[in-house]
Structures are given as C-alpha cells and as structure tokens.
Design a protein that fits this description.
With 396 residues, the protein is of the alpha/beta class. The protein contains 16 helices and eight strands.
Length: 396
Amino acid sequence: MASILDYVEWRGDLTFKEREFNDVDNLILAELAYTDLLGVLENGGLEDTITITEAYKKYKDLGKDQSYLMCNPEPLLEKCAGTVRFGSVRIRDYIDMKNQGAQFQFAAMTFVLDDGSLYVAFRGTDDSLAGWREDLNFSYMEATPAQLSAVEYLNLELTKISRNRKDGILFPNSGENHDSRDEGLPPVRVGGHSKGGNLAIYASAFCENAERIVTVYSNDGPGFNETIVGHSDYQKVLEKTSLIIPEGSLIGVMLYNKDEKQIVKSTAKGGTKQHNPYSWVVNATGFEQAEKQTSMSLMLDRTLDEWTMRLDNEQKKNFIDILFDTLESSGAKTFTEIYADKWNYYNAIRKAVVKLAPEQLSVLFDVAGQFLAAGKEVIMEDRKSGDVKHDPDTDQ
C-alpha cells in the first residue's frame, strides 16, 4: 500500500498549476512543518525565504538529525527536494519557540506554492514534556500560549499577503490565476498534524480576516474543550474545516470536534503508530478511505468524552500539573531522554512519586479512577445496546 513518499514520486513531476492541491499535499506540508530549520532559516526572520530544494541542502550541510522523532521529516524532505512539484515551493516566516517553564512549544512556517497559493503550517507536538503538557492543557484552558501564538502568526501572514498583493511584490502575476475571495488575494490554506491541527483550527477561528482562508486542515489533531466549541467563531470556521484521522485514531478523538471526519486507512497496527503520517494509505489523488473507525478508537472517543465531563477544570489542572511536575523532577526535558535511559529515569520518577504529599497522590488516583469508571460505563452501555464488537485486525 502506498504512502506519502510514494505520492511524491507519482506526482513529483507535476506542478500545482498542472495538478491542483489536494488532501495528500496538505499532509505532506503538515509533515514538513516538523523539519528543524534552525540555522537553515533565520528564526523569526520575516524576510528570510528559501525553496525546499535549497532547504534540504542546507539541512544536510548542517548535519541535522531528527531520527528520534516518530514522524521524522527528513525522508520526506529529501524526496520533495528532488521534485518539480515541491522542490520550488518556498518556505518563509519560520519561527520556532520553546519554553519548558512556561509549558510552551510553538513552531510555524508558511509555504508559497507555484500557483501562488499559500499553506500556513503549524508544527505538531515534538517529544518535549513541555509540548505534551500544553496539549493536555487544551482540556481546561480557554487559550494556551501556543494557540495565542498561532493566532498572532496567522494574523501576520494574512496582513502580509494583503500588503504584498497590493504592492505586487510576491504575486505580481497571480491576479488572473486565482478565484480570489478578496480583491485578487491568493488562496490561503491553514493546517497541521497532531497539535498543529488544533492550532490551525483555533487560529483560523479567532484570527482577523478569516474569510480569506479557503480550507483548514486538522490531520489527526486533538479537539477543544466545551468553552471553545460553543463559541460562534469556532462554529463558523468548521464550515471550511477538514478533519482527517486514521481509522484507529487515538489523538484525533481527544476532546470535542465536529462529527464529520475523513477516515483514512493505515498500514500500522494500533492507534499510537497510526498517528504517524507515513502510515496513512494514499492514492494518486487523495487518501484511501476506511469504512469506519476501529471499535477501539470509537470506545476511546466516548470514554474520553465521558471522562472530561466528570472532571471540573480545577481537577484537570491539578492532575496535569502533578503528573508533569513529577516527570520533570527527574531532570528529563523530552520523552526521548526518558526512553534512552529508562532505568535511571524510572527510579528518579518513582522517588518523586514517593515524595508527593497525600493530597497530591489522592488527585492522581482519583482522576485515574474516574477514567476507569468512564471506560466501564461506555462498555456497559455498549453491552446493553448490543454494540460490543471486536475486530482483531484493527484493534491491536
């Protein structure tokens, strides 16, 4: 079965003018947003721009290595760099920020395609504890630092294309080629994978000039808490939002999002491995569609909904703070560090747990108990309705 790497080979000789942008192109650019471009482009340099072909050469010259990431972007970057379709795509406005103390990880870049359209890409969660902590903060915070940064970044991009279009700087010949939504402005798509998908939706909902955005993509991105989903701006942006998840999704079913989703076949067994974009099955024009989510994915979806309804925001915050304070007390900054030296970090974490105050231990056990209770309730409801099914091929 074919992956995004195969797609690049199939369609690499065709420009975006010859074969229009599709859902697989979206996933490819969302995956490329994981590329560490520090040193390749100026961090925060709003005038710095480079093609994907040039970026790959500098990336290799700098000896970059991101093989520790589950979705290592380097194989895709290498493939894209040697093609007509992606090699000439320009990357601009790269920004990469991380602050463990502030529970903050944010990175974004904008791709300018040969047809004049733009894809604003927000990076998903890396393996940092700060990044994963912020992901869980989505469950109770009205806005996380990364979400606010995403709005600021998208506002910058939308303002920039308005100014540059008027001045004829970036797209001097684009006026006749686009079905514009605002005085000949180029089409803008916004997307990301994992947390990047959440940021794409949030930024598109709460930015200025959202009407200039044609499509928003969330590729297996987590959803939002009740406060956000009830907001009129969020509801409005859903009309042009495409939610794409693998059939065994675990991340994309977290929290609340719209019900309509594109469910994609995956070559991986198990929801955590299916989160990897390289496992999604593609064809020449889009994704291979799965008939439905796996029963495990559906059960987790309902269990998480039930669990979050049982907890108030204070309980969620306390649980997340205690959990990650304990992990960080080991001295680790990333999950890669923990996996690389499991025994020493396990002992450090165990000692930290032993030192927790009784009330902190109570919070951990209570919230974990609530999750088990929520799962039990979902299973009991399924048994009563006769919906309990087990598919050994998809529920691994």
